[in-house]
Amino acid sequence: MKNELTIGMPVQAVDGRVGDLVQIIAEPEGQEPTYLIVRLDRDPPKEVVVPVALVEGVAGGAVGLDTAGEALQGFPDYEAVTGKTTGGRDLIARLRAALPPYRPFTEAATAKLRQRAASDRPAEVGTGMAVYDRAGSEVGQVQGLIGDAERQEASHLILRVTGRPTDDPRLVPADLVDYVSGSRLYLLVESDYLAGLPIYRSEPD
Fold this sequence. Notes:
By secondary structure, the chain is mainly beta.
């Protein structure tokens, strides 16, 4: 894929153009790209970190992402990095992003969520489910769900990180979920990426 990706390429989401590819991040151990830096078409400008796992393909001189343009707004903000670096792990470890307050959309403990590995079969996701990264390591539990109240579809998971009870929970876009197996939920990204996801901040009473 690295040979197909070129800086400056337009980037397309499933619902149309979203911006341009401005940087390719590779892990220190290998040459394959791990993350893309995409400058979104918005004012003020914003550059977000997108995992390569969301690249559907490269065609017609454009990078196609298997996610919606609106969902990209919640991805880690590259400008939050102190000192830009091409080292994938250093980059993600230094990402610090925050979003306005969110409130869980329902008191119910479960909601529907599209599985990327089985897009025609939505999965039932519930609070307390164990969450695993791309390498198969447990990274936390589902603390809550955010999304469409009427349709009971989750757009984000609230992730409580394993072994770090003092850390703020993270907002994980539903597009980063690979599949659900029983009471386990598997992500498309490795644990390093989670540190750069937005912090979940509940609305004050």
